[in-house]
Design brief:
The structure is a homodimer. Helix content of chain A is 40%, strand content 20%. Chain A contains 17 helices and 16 strands. In chain A, the strands form three sheets. In chain A, strands 1-5-6-11-10-9-7-8 form an eight-stranded mixed β-sheet. In chain A, strands 13-12-14-15-16 form a five-stranded mixed β-sheet, with helices on both faces. Chain A has a three-stranded antiparallel β-sheet with strand order 2-4-3. In chain A, helix 14 links the parallel strand 12 and strand 13. The longest helix of chain A has 20 residues. The interface between A and B is large, with 102 and 102 residues. Chains A, B: It catalyses: tRNA(His) + L-histidine + ATP = L-histidyl-tRNA(His) + AMP + diphosphate + H(+). Chains A, B: One of its GO terms (molecular function) is ATP binding. Chains A, B: This is Histidine--tRNA ligase.
Amino acid sequence: MTNDNDIVKPSILPGFMELLPSEQILFNKMLDTIRYNYEKFGFLPIDTPVIERAEILLAKGGGETEKQIYRFKKGDTDLALRFDLTVPLARYVAQHFSELTFPFKRYHIGKVYRGEKAQRGRFREFYQCDIDIIGNEKLDIINDAEIPSIIYSTFKDLGFKSFTIKINNRKILKGFFKHLKILDSTEILRTIDKLEKIGLNKVEEELKEQGLEKEIIREILEFIQISGTNEEKLKKLNSLEIENDIFKEGLNELKTVNYYVKAFGVPEENYMIDLTIVRGLDYYTGTVYETFLDDYPNIGSICSGGRYDNLAEYYTKQKLPGVGISIGLTRLFYQLNEANLIKFEDSSLTKVLVIPMKGYLDQAIKIANLLRDEDINTQIYLEKGKVGKKFSYADKLGIPYTLIIGEEEIKQERYSLRNMETGKQEMLSIEELLLFLNK
Amino acid sequence: MTNDNDIVKPSILPGFMELLPSEQILFNKMLDTIRYNYEKFGFLPIDTPVIERAEILLAKGGGETEKQIYRFKKGDTDLALRFDLTVPLARYVAQHFSELTFPFKRYHIGKVYRGEKAQRGRFREFYQCDIDIIGNEKLDIINDAEIPSIIYSTFKDLGFKSFTIKINNRKILKGFFKHLKILDSTEILRTIDKLEKIGLNKVEEELKEQGLEKEIIREILEFIQISGTNEEKLKKLNSLEIENDIFKEGLNELKTVNYYVKAFGVPEENYMIDLTIVRGLDYYTGTVYETFLDDYPNIGSICSGGRYDNLAEYYTKQKLPGVGISIGLTRLFYQLNEANLIKFEDSSLTKVLVIPMKGYLDQAIKIANLLRDEDINTQIYLEKGKVGKKFSYADKLGIPYTLIIGEEEIKQERYSLRNMETGKQEMLSIEELLLFLNK
């Protein structure tokens, strides 16, 4: 049909992740674990179109978003691909407001698109795994304390041993800057946000460059260095005696969250008040979260989020406060893989490869039917060829067991099950086989 | 922040499906069931980018595809959204050829995009659930017989009672037309394909319009009216004594497939040889499948596919024959819903809503922690308000049980579990509660 010249070199675009099946299986297991935990805590699934009207997705507008968004026309319609799951959530809640029950707890796992500059570890298509709890007019602060318990449960189930959920409240920062009589703290917050990366001296330097007074810088540095246990930090914040409402409100919220995070069963070693956690500058209005792997701080935050006053102001006049988090699974998977933390052995979904000897296909099919009836993931090797090749097929795919069906087996009504890892081979009756493979 | 004029009316584009959570739960259950069955039969997952180079996706080119595809530029790059999962599979297998193990059995569940004319029941974004078995150079015909058993197992698990998998072999059609000395059968096949819809008389009419000789038309009509059991149909095909290789090859394949479909455990009433099944005119080269709900023939085929000689000729010189099927879940879900075949009651994923009475939040959280530790999907109602409102929240979401935690309960160490459907309320100890909700 085609000649050499017609062949298009098969490749994908830079900045897109594509996995081999053995990797995909583990990626999917992580996705499933996240979904499982989200459902365990009472979140409902939604799924929104990847393509929306550009007008909808860019209602807020401005900043990096507009530059990075995939935007195009189809006919006369100005379209774009979603760049996060929050804007679609806002549109969804505004659109379906009267059909939803509040507080509305939803999870959404899906791909989002950002035409970023291609660089290692940055993806243009990536999975986000989001949960949000949306209130109608108001939403209790206890919700902010439940969120860390969901993060904890999820990352435990994902197999992580040591990680820390860092918690802060932006009202405390806001009140603190009000107390310092700083009207626009944007630049300062941007600097504080980099503390972990650049260190205290560099932060001081940057603050100087911003033209702040010496005394102000001293107070900022003192503030962000507040240390000790969570209780000690709260005490020190109290002792600052900052007398504005927003600071006090933030401090009270943080106290409540700190108390109930413990009540929700998150161990002390897995969460921590950190006054330098800032998060997206204009979106969050109260509690904020970031999560770090203790042994791999360079990976950065693996799960972040926070409280916001008003989810959907661009689409409705309803006031919809909420709190939520997001796990960027594509980037997380990439980073874990780079750090050699993902084990690809034993990832096979298929439990057994049935290998029919010549002339015994009918019997092999019969036995495969029985295995599948018992929900045992089973493949039959249907191609002709040498037995060695068939064993090596199971080996290459990491299928843990092979089952030979031939003359001897049919005569004895016992079948040779081979453990592909140990090489051990046993003759089992159908009943024994089902019992063994079902466990 | 915003005033009235700034509000963008929240809506999605026509031709896109968006579900409420209660619907989404059932949609996801169907997706999970399909995935579960695909894995049971030994298929491996892959996931490819939604965006690919237009050159890749349009390598084959021509036809409806080019008109319907979402295509756009980002910088200088000519991009498009995938319009099916087969072209990405071809590219994937060609690209990763040396890293894959053949026969390569893969499943892929994902969204695809077609900018079709908007009309009821047609979607521009929809889920496809595909499996394919790809051989290197060759692929045994028995694979073609295993496919119907996967369709059968999947649709049984989806809860369908009566459906028929119709099977044909395009080589038989090809050989038959060769025997009639018809070189280009495209138009005739297009007409035959409509038999179910337009009836025999209309088919005859159309064939006349195409200028075919009377005798030829008679033979075609006789051929497509071959009836009886599967065995009788095969016998009649035999008795036609058509002496060309392609016809004989097709007939032999169909005989083999017919024999082994039975061996794979598909009941007689769920499959049928149908010589009028044609499928996509230029893609399939051997066995073809279509699946119909017996009680809802108007829904059309709910699962189709077939055998092809060469998957990836546009991307590699490797010869890669394969066989596969696809379920278009978005359309199927829509059609089932239209036919009132989807029951939205009892779709809640959450098993129990814990309702703390005033002053008993700490204890309620403690008990919710215990339930979640036992993998019981649990929500705590954290907002303040009247108890009636909290019960009605559970009711609206279809949560089957509520658990009240208050003074009496804590004193007695027994907790009131209310069955929201029957209204029956019982006082249970923690052990009884876990046992009851875990079943």
